[in-house]
Specification:
The radius of gyration is 17 Å and the shape is globular. By secondary structure, it is of the alpha+beta class. 28% of the residues lie in helices and 16% in strands. Strand 1 and strand 2 form a beta hairpin. It has one domain (4-97).
């Protein structure tokens, strides 16, 4: 099975993908090379420090696994999506009905 990052950033290899290529609706995470642990990362903090135009391959060297403490060959991945926010009108209608 291929990494979900390639599904989100279609037509690009890992070394070509920038943070801005992954839409904000996706939860960005890291994947450990040694134990394959996956977990979310603070995307806003990363983009604030290195910029949205930064290539992931230059920033992934700072990832470290929280399970086995591996610090080499870790990569960014997509670990999920955010649920869409309900429309305000739907929420108001539900409150009036209930």
């Amino acid at each position: 099975m291929s990494d979900p990052l390639y599904t989100v950033a279609t037509g690009k290899f890992y070394f070509q993908i920038r943070f801005e290529d992954v839409p904000q609706q996706y939860i960005l995470g890291g994947r450990c090379f040694c134990c394959n642990h996956r977990g979310p990362v603070d995307r806003k903090r990363i983009e604030k420090r290195w910029g949205a135009a930064a290539q992931m391959r230059w920033v992934d060297r700072y990832l470290h696994c929280l399970v086995c403490d591996n610090k080499i060959e870790n990569m960014f991945t997509v670990v999920g999506t955010y649920l869409p926010a309900p429309e305000v009108a739907e929420v108001v209608a539900l409150r009036k009905a209930g």
